[in-house]
């Protein structure tokens, strides 16, 4: 477990949008196809769907640091996750969160 924070702390980005039901498969396909092209600055990514509102989808990504996220954002005209949501007719909102603590199960 770590509770270090600072300029090199990991950050989480959350892209959120409502997606029409007839576009769910296309969004899932676009997201999984992107797995082969993850930016080196990214640690992990998830595509999640709300159980309370199935039209609500989130792309959640963990980045090595805020600096790494900014490096990626400056290297592309539009981030890949935004393009994936736009490809299915949804305009996502972005939230950036600092990871202040993390834990991993003991192996």
Overall description:
The protein has a single domain (11-98), classed as Alpha-Beta Plaits, CATH 3.30.70.100. A four-stranded antiparallel beta sheet has the order 2-3-1-4. With 107 residues, the chain is α+β, with helices and mostly antiparallel strands. Helices cover 25% and strands 28% of the residues. The two termini are 13 Å apart. The chain has helices spanning 24-33, 66-75, 80-86; strands at 11-18, 42-49, 56-63, 93-98.
Question: Strands, helices and their partners?
Answer:
Layout: E1 11-18, H1 24-33, E2 42-49, E3 56-63, H2 66-75, H3 80-86, E4 93-98
Antiparallel strand pairs: 1-3, 1-4, 2-3
Task: List the secondary-structure elements in sequence, H or E.
Answer: EHEEHHE
Strand order of the largest sheet: 2-3-1-4
Taking the alpha carbons of the first and last residues, their distance comes to 13 Å
State the CATH class: Alpha Beta
Please provide the count of β strands.
4
Q: Structural class from helices and strands? A: alpha+beta
Please work out how many helical segments DSSP would assign: 3
CATH architectural label: 2-Layer Sandwich
Shape descriptor: globular
Number of domains: 1
Q: Describe the biggest sheet? A: 4 strands, antiparallel
Low-confidence stretches: none
Radius of gyration: 15 Å
Proportion of residues in extended strands: 25-35%
Mean pLDDT across the residues is 93
* Helix share bin: 25-40%
CATH fold field value: Alpha-Beta Plaits
């Amino acid at each position: 477990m770590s509770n270090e924070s600072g300029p090199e702390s990991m950050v989480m980005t959350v892209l959120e949008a409502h997606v029409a039901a007839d576009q769910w498969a296309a969004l899932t396909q676009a997201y999984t196809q992107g797995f082969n092209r993850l930016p080196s600055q990214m640690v992990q990514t998830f595509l999640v769907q709300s159980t309370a509102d199935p039209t609500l989808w989130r792309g959640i990504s963990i980045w090595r640091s805020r600096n790494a996220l900014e490096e990626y954002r400056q290297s592309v005209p539009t981030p890949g996750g935004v393009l994936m949501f736009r490809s299915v007719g949804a305009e996502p909102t972005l939230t950036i969160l600092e990871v202040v603590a993390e834990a991993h199960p003991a192996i």
